User: Which sequence fits this backbone?
């Protein structure tokens, strides 16, 4: 039993021993098919690849960590379920459930036997989420035509957000910002490199725009209403003229705003373990919620460095930040 427990804690040792390993985060990470992961993520993802049964009407919300996953989950849930739960109603699930818990992650929580049974038990159409890069998604997802909503964010803001988050949630470990920045620039971060993650989904969205919707956090912040409508069209539940004139779009935007969600007791208090063995405060998903917060944390030189790397890595893709 002891050994089983260790295997579950540390991942599949046979697979892991064949993978490149790197120190520098709160635990060693492994490079699995071009993506830096914790040992348990590698195990979880490989189990998922063999066990997950997608359905053609599944919609997967895909993000690199700290790009606005929580917001996208709230928005997509609110849009998809508004006939049952009108936005702004006094009994809306978002008032009593953390957005992270309204849309389950494919690869989380980590288990030694992946809980695909829980996913199998969900009624269709399912809203699911993932941090996996496009090449790690089970192949059957694209083969079946499952739709994907990808949300990305300005890379410097992603770095700043993830640095704060890691320091908050990895209790006994304090990551130095400069050192972590250097690692990030080398592509070494959880689910990194960031640019490969973004580029992978970007290229899918160019090739299959009806299947993969590509969104940017900064654009959503600038005009949330427009994006809520796009999301509704993509989810095949477009807003009716009546809804639009009745303010239903604005209701969704207001209910899912940073200020509103952050202030709700279900999001501002308490601790939950969504990863497995890593309890964290519910409030850690809500920090500043700003575009350009990097300006108060990074030097000009750091900003230029990351800009240059991202520009070079995305060159020829048609995607810029
Ligand atoms: P900051 O750390 O820059 O504030 P994720 O949900 O992928 O973990 O991303 C977290 C980031 O999204 C955090 O960014 C968080 O504050 C921000 N965020 C959370 N909810 C939001 C919302 N409703 N609207 C806008 N940003 C939100």
Assistant:
């Amino acid at each position: 039993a002891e050994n089983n427990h260790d295997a579950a804690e540390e991942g599949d040792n046979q697979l892991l021993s064949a993978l490149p390993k790197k120190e520098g985060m709160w635990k060693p990470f492994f490079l699995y098919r071009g993506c830096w992961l914790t040992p348990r993520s590698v195990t979880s993802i490989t189990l998922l690849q063999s066990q997950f049964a997608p359905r053609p009407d599944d919609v997967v919300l895909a993000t690199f960590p700290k790009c606005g996953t929580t917001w996208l989950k709230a928005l997509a849930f609110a849009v998809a379920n508004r006939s049952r739960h009108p936005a702004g109603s006094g009994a809306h699930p978002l008032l009593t459930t953390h957005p992270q818990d309204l849309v389950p992650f494919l690869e989380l929580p980590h288990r030694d036997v992946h809980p695909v049974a829980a996913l199998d038990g969900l009624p269709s159409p399912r809203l699911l989420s993932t941090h996996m890069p496009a090449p790690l998604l089970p192949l059957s997802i694209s083969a079946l035509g499952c739709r994907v909503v990808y949300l990305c964010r300005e890379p410097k803001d992603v770095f700043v957000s993830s640095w704060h988050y890691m320091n908050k949630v990895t209790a006994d470990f304090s990551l130095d910002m400069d050192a972590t920045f250097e690692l990030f620039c080398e592509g070494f971060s959880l689910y990194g490199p960031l640019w490969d993650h973004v580029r992978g989904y970007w290229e899918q969205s160019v090739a299959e725009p009806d299947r993969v919707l590509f969104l940017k956090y900064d654009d959503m912040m600038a005009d949330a209403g427009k994006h809520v409508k796009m999301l509704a069209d993509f989810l095949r539940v477009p807003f009716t003229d009546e809804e639009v004139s009745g303010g239903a779009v604005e209701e969704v935007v207001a209910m899912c705003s940073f200020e509103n969600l952050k202030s709700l007791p279900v999001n501002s208090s308490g601790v939950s373990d969504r990863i497995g063995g890593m309890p964290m405060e519910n409030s850690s998903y809500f920090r500043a919620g700003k575009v350009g917060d990097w300006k108060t944390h990074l030097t000009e030189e750091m900003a230029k460095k990351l800009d240059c790397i991202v520009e070079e890595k995305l060159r020829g893709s048609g995607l810029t930040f």
User: Anything to note?
Assistant: Residues 32 and 219 are 31 Å apart (CA to CA).
